From TrEMBL:
Transmembrane segments: none annotated. It comes from Actinocatenispora thailandica. SUPFAM superfamilies: Protein kinase-like (PK-like). InterPro entries: AGP_Transferase, Aminoglycoside_PTrfase, Kinase-like_dom_sf. It holds the Pfam family APH. It comes from the Bacteria. Residues 30-204 form the Aminoglycoside phosphotransferase domain. This is Aminoglycoside phosphotransferase.
Length: 248
């Protein structure tokens, strides 16, 4: 009999694994519907949807292994990282999905959210003021107009699976929607900044590196408190706090 294991669980959603089947349970039914639709629309390898019911999505495991883990060196080849960049370019070149950006946030809303979160990090004693101030300054470069593209929205390394030099699957499309292409590129290389050149070689177009560095700061500043409150450790070596420190 296959054992049931909890992959991740918090107040918004949970993912369980039973053998080679993953069950995603989400309190936001519309978000789960969008996730299933995003996988159907995305022109990149995605998990096979086995069945879909209100609040539950069953998907098959994808072959291969994660391209990397946050806080650990990646053993994937430069060609594998380039393949991830090429897959991401295919996604960004695809037609926009038929739903608005998550939360409908524009530049002003994102800036206000970032300022509020920076304040909480300092007043709550989570991070020192100079570290937060420096990264908020770096983050400003991300707060500029962009042309929306089809983005994954949460493309960290554990969501990209490879077998040798082949991308075998990109998982967890719960945040997919119109967004900034540079945010996906930054999320993929967060904590693996040394692989950015390989990713961009596969992506195949000029990219403003200052904007990607800015998104590293944005994502880390917005994630630290949430991660700490939900049982994750952003202070672990190579993770979000180390990314922020590298901006100093």
């Amino acid at each position: 009999m296959d054992e049931v294991s909890v992959v991740v669980a918090h107040s918004e959603r949970a993912t369980l694994r039973v053998g080679d089947v993953f069950l995603k349970v989400d309190g936001d039914r519309a978000r789960l519907d969008r996730e299933a639709e995003a996988m159907a629309l995305a022109p990149v390898p995605t998990p096979k949807v086995l069945w879909h019911r209100p609040s539950v999505l069953a998907i098959a495991a994808v072959p291969g292994a994660e391209i990397a883990r946050l806080g650990e060196p990646s053993t994937a080849s430069p060609a594998a990282w380039a393949a991830a960049g090429a897959a991401l370019r295919n996604l960004h070149d695809a037609p926009l999905p038929p739903w608005p950006a998550r939360g409908g946030r524009g530049i002003g809303e994102l800036s206000a959210e970032l300022d509020a979160e920076c304040g909480r990090l300092v007043t709550g004693g989570i991070l020192p003021a100079d570290l937060v101030t420096r990264n908020r300054r770096v983050a400003e470069a991300a707060l500029r107009p962009w042309t929306p593209v089809f983005t994954h929205g949460d493309l960290h390394v554990a969501h990209v699976f490879v077998d040798g030099e082949e991308i075998t699957g990109i998982i967890d499309w719960s945040e997919a929607g119109p967004g900034d292409a540079r945010r996906d590129l930054a999320t993929l290389t967060l904590g693996h900044q040394d692989r950015l050149g390989d990713v961009l070689a596969g992506y195949g177009t000029d990219v403003d590196l200052d904007v990607i560095r800015a998104w590293w700061s944005v994502r880390s500043l917005l994630a630290v408190r949430w991660l700490a409150e939900h049982g994750f450790d952003p202070f672990a070596p190579g993770c979000e706090v180390d990314v922020l420190r590298s901006r100093m």
